[in-house]
Specification:
With 303 residues, the protein is an alpha+beta fold. The chain has two domains: 16-141, no CATH class; 151-288, 2-Layer Sandwich (Alpha-Beta Plaits), CATH 3.30.70.2200. 25% of the residues lie in helices and 33% in strands. Strands 1, 2, 3, 4, 5, 6, 7, 8, 9, 10, 11, 12 and 13 form a 13-stranded mixed sheet that branches. The radius of gyration is 21 Å and the shape is elongated. This is DUF1743 domain-containing protein.
Length: 303
Amino acid sequence: MKEIELEDPYTIPYKGIYVVCDKNNEYAEIIEHTNCYGGAAWSKFHYSHSPLILNTRSIGNMIRYLVRTGSSTLDLKPSRSAAGIESVIVSGDEIHISYSGLGGGGVGATKCRALAEGVLRYECTESGGGRAAKGTIVVPRRERVLIGIDDTDTKETGATWTLTHNIAKELDCPESVYLSHTLVQLYPVEARTQNCVSTVLEFGCTGDLAKRELLENTKAALKKYSASDQTGMVVLSDFDPKEVYEYSKQCRSGELTKDYAMQYASEHGVDVWMDGNGVIGALASLAWFARPDESIRLEAEIE
């Protein structure tokens, strides 16, 4: 018989909590990386009733909340809307998120989140039992950086999705957090390696210096490890990549030229960091960040 010793039996700290904002600080996406998906799924359901929440999605063990910034009043009710997000306030380089909840929902809303990686500091009330609880966490303000990559492999060597993930994992740090990795199915053109799939990496960066270092290191790693001389790497720093939706649709339904891809990137604010033929697929991948279950189907449409 094994005797279990639990240091804190009623707390499961989240792995990490990160927030990316749009340029005007009107919208934010709260990305919670959980250690217990069951508890996070419960939160996802109940938080969806919060007035500030526009959309919720789960990807693996991450829950993503698209929110309007500001404050709201929650009407907490057991079993139906027992916890929620009261406010998301941007203050300079920091974001203050206030949660509240009843009973076990109060535990998750306060201490479990307060102890997550990425949290700078926190305040919370007592929680658990029949109590209502409130807590506020403070996290760095981040901006979304999308890196589209294609054509790092040959018919004999490698796979772009594996190389890009391994690079991103190595570059993951508090200033540039690695948030998601998505494979994007492209139209199977003749000049493909095998499956005609590109990759988009999503990072949350705390500032221009962190972003520059991330991109320079990514490019250097691609040059070092790519098995192809036609690697494409493109970058878009934007909360919503809607500017490339139309291009992605075209690239997933027919064959495009490199000249067209370069022109489209230039006209729609996308920076080209490596300009091999892979830029065609790399540009198309940007629209599908954090949509790995949809992006692998050619017939899927971006909503």
